[in-house]
Amino acid sequence: MEISLAEVAEGYTQNISMLKMAKTLLESGCSESLSQPAAIVDELRVELANTSKSMRREELQLKKFEDLKRESAILLERLKYVMENVPTKLPQQKTAVSAQCRNETIQSIEPTKPSVPQVPLVQMIGCQYLDFLTVDEFKTVPKYMKGRLTYDKVNSMIEKLDKVYIEKYKIRRLKKSSLNDVNKKRLDAYRLQETEETKGLYFIVEQDIADFSSLKMDSVLRNIFTILRHCGLIFEIRGGGYTRLVCYSRY
User: Fold this and answer.
1) CB within 8 A of 88, min separation 6: which ones?
2) Which stretches are annotated as coiled coil (predicted)?
3) What are the tens digits of pLDDT across the range 177-195?
């Protein structure tokens, strides 16, 4: 059975009252045998004060423990949420140099391009050319752009588009003498698509998508491009009858 501080204090108070009476009798000279109770009264006063201090300290410690318990419960809930919402795609981390190149490209190529919310570098993850969207970036996309598109669907499409870039620039890096007739024609087309404005940039056009993927230029794919432009992963350079989808260089 637990005893409260108030009950302990009341017990000591009663003992002190009785001992005070005994001390009064002692001081009036009634009996020398009452000197011992007087000393006990003083000891009890000291003991009561010390007990009160100890109990106050214990109460403070208990309050700190309850606060820590509440904070731990909140942290546990947050950890559960994080575990349940881990992105399904987590490729290698993008380097700081890549982020710097992207910022320089934005300033030099599209000075009037709307600013894009900055995302911590640790979240800049992607394929060889394109970046995957992070959960936070996907949340910034307006509902009218998303339509019925989900986070996983958008990143799946990004992965397919990235393969188009890979295949195109695999051909672009080969010597013309090592190419077959089909790829020689493609290489000639790539050179015609390039301008002074695209120098040093990586881009694809609609024909590349048709050549190297099963994707179709339908409303879904156009919505994907709109989302990627909104999040600052690609931008367009038009001219010469081409719409070039430029990704921000990772190199």
Assistant:
1) 152, 155
2) 41-68
3) 899 999 999 999 999 999 9
Please, are residues 155 and 137 in contact by the beta-carbon 8 Å criterion? no
Q: Are 215 and 160 a contacting pair, CB within 8 Å?
A: yes
Q: Where are the domains of the chain?
A: 5-84, 96-247
Q: What are phi and psi of 151, to 5 degrees?
A: -60, -45
Q: What is the pTM of this model?
A: 0.50
Residue 68 and residue 146: Cα distance in Å, rounded?
42
**Strand, coil or helix: 44:** helix
Q: Are the C-beta atoms of residues 187 and 176 closer than 8 Å to each other?
A: yes
The beta strand positions in 177-229, using DSSP E, are 202-204
- Cα separation, 55 vs 4, in Å, equals 9
**Domain 96-247 adopts which CATH fold?**
Arc Repressor Mutant, subunit A (1.10.10)
Q: Please give the Cα distance from 247 to 245 (Å, whole number).
A: 7
Q: Which two tokens stand for residue 238?
A: 């038009």
- Is it the case that residue 124 has pLDDT exceeding 50? no
| pLDDT value at residue 160 | 94
Exposure b/e, 78-111, CB count within 10 A at least 16 = b: eeeeeeeeeeebeeeebeeebbebbeebbeeeee
